[in-house]
Amino acid sequence: MNQRVAQSSEQILTVDSSEQSHRVALTTRKTPIITRQMIFMFIILGTFPLWSEWVGLYNYLGAEIAIWIIYALGFNLLLGYTGLPSFGHGAFFGIGAYAYGLTQLGIIESVWVGIFVSLLAGAVAAGVVACFISHRRGIYYALMTIAFGQIFWFTSMRWHTLTGGEDGLLNIHRGELNLGLFSFSLSETSSLFYFIFAILMVVTVCLWRLVHSPYGKALQAIRMNEMRARFLGYNVWLIKWSVFMISGAIAGLAGGLFALAQQSAYPDVMNLHASGLIVMLTLIGGGFVSYWGPVLGAIVFFLARDTLGAMTETWLLWYGLMFMLVIIFKPEGIAGVWQDLMKRREKRRLKANGSTENASGEV
Amino acid sequence: MDILINLLPHLVNGLSLGLLFGLIALGFMLIVGVMELINLAHGSLFALGAYFAMTIINPDLSSWGAIGTWYMDLSLGLRYFLGLIIGSFLVALVGMGLEVCMRRTYGKKAEYGLLLTFGAALVIEETIRITWGSGEQFLPVPQMMSGAFIAGDMIYSTYRFYAAGFGAFMIFVVWLFLEKTPFGAMIKAGAHDSEMVRALGVNLTRLRLYVFAFGALLAAVAGIILTPIWGLRPHVGVDVVIPAFLIIVLGGIGSFWGAIIAGVLVGLVVAIVGAYASQWSLMSMYILLIVVLTFRTRGLLGKKSTLEN
Question: What is the CATH number of domain A31-331?
Answer without folding.
Answer: 1.10.3470
